[in-house]
Amino acid sequence: MTFTSCISEYLNMYQKYMIASGRWSRDGFYCLKQFDKWLSIQGDINQTLIDTWCAQRPTEKSNSCRSRIYPVIAFLKYANNKNLLAVKIPKPPKNRPRTYIPHFFTEDELKRFFQACDNLYQGNTNEKNKYRKITIPVFFRLLYSTGLRTTEARLLKRDDVDLIHGIINVRRSKGGHQQHYVVMHDSMRDLMSVFDSVMNELMPNREYFFQSTSGGHYSTNWVSSSFSKIWKSCNQTDAVPYALRHHYAIMNINKCIRDGLDFYAKFIYLSRTMGHCVLESTRYYYSIVPELAEIIDKLTSKTAQDLFPELEHEKSRIN
Predict the structure, then answer these.
(1) Residue whose C-alpha is closest to residue 31's, from 76, 69, 80
(2) How far is residue 159's CA from residue 156's CA, in Å, rounded to a whole number?
(3) What would the pLDDT profile of 197-251 be if each residue is shown by its tens digit?
(4) Whole-number Å distance between alpha carbons of 300 and 312
(5) What is the DSSP code string of 112-163?
(6) How much is the CA Rg of the chain, to the nearest whole Å?
């Protein structure tokens, strides 16, 4: 059995339910497994133990705590609804919007980064490194060229990628199931096709487009650690993989500006392909690009408020 605590039967039921509904994730499983392991040590489950586990730890930021306990909260709601448990659902700490300004990549930084991706594990032929050597250059180029969120790319299944027409069907997005489509550049589609053919030989009938040697999708930590290790090997600045999405948005906004009168229509298209529910989420990038507002005003003779008169400020974290 997957779980071993006093509620292992309920957790296994929940796992089957989530798998059947297509919402089971490796990260969520890890959080539930840690909760289960802790309950095994306690030998019981009660409200005090639940509240203790879900409380923000001194070493945690509020957003980290939310990520850790959300899978547990989702399970507890399921167990209550099924009359398996009767517990009070803990309230997670408030979401704290991030205020950092994303890294703005230079052409030389990106060139060095992708060259480093292409030259990984020279002479090292163990199985994990062989797969990483094939996967990493394609994975990060996909983020760079499409603006996909890192989670969206990790969770892509083979059936989600149409290599004939070059269209990606993003079924699971930020906050749940905001489905949208992304069209790949021809060069990216060709690279994805070569990657798929090679992986087909090495890992027949795989479920995920980027599948790990363990048989599932890669973890959030794998993305972060892989990017960080490669980036620091060739650049002196600080950056995170999510900055590739910011870069994609900014480059495309600049392109929209050069197109002049078609700006608004192209801006809407960009917003939809990035999976934003509201245009205000895309307008966020407008606010962080130095002097971008002045450039748009000059080229279009319109202010930001003229272009987006119906939009209200979105207070939630934009990404």
Answers:
(1) 69
(2) 8
(3) 999 999 999 999 999 988 889 988 899 999 999 999 999 999 999 889 888 877 7
(4) 21
(5) HHHHHHHTTTTT---HHHHHHHHHHHHHHHHHHHH---HHHHHT-BGGGEET
(6) 22
The Cα 163–Cα 227 span in angstroms is: 25
Could you report the per-residue pLDDT of 118-162, keeping only the tens digit for each? 998 776 668 888 899 999 999 999 999 998 989 899 999 999 999
SS3 275: coil
Cα 97-272-224 angle, rounded to 5 deg: 50
Report the distance separating Cα 210 and Cα 254, nearest Å. 31
Residue 152 CA, distance from chain mean position: 5
The span from the CA of 274 to the CA of 147, in Å, is 6
Sign of the CA dihedral with 201 first, then 202, 206, and 212 last: negative
Q: Which of 234, 239, 294 is nearest to 101 (CA)?
A: 239
What is residue 286's predicted lDDT score, i.e. its pLDDT?
56
pTM: 0.62
Q: In this structure, which amino acid lies at residue 109?
A: E
| 275, 178 contact by CB (below 8 A) | yes
Q: Tell me the pLDDT tens digit for each residue of 50-107.
A: 999 999 988 888 888 988 999 999 999 999 999 999 999 999 988 766 656 678 899 9
Distance from C-alpha of 308 to C-alpha of 284, rounded to nearest angstrom: 12
User: Each residue of 9-42: pLDDT tens digit?
Assistant: 999 999 999 988 878 877 788 899 999 999 999 9
pLDDT, average across residues 253-272: 60
150 in Cβ contact with 162 (< 8 Å) = no
Contacts (Cβ under 8 Å, ≥6 apart) of 20? none
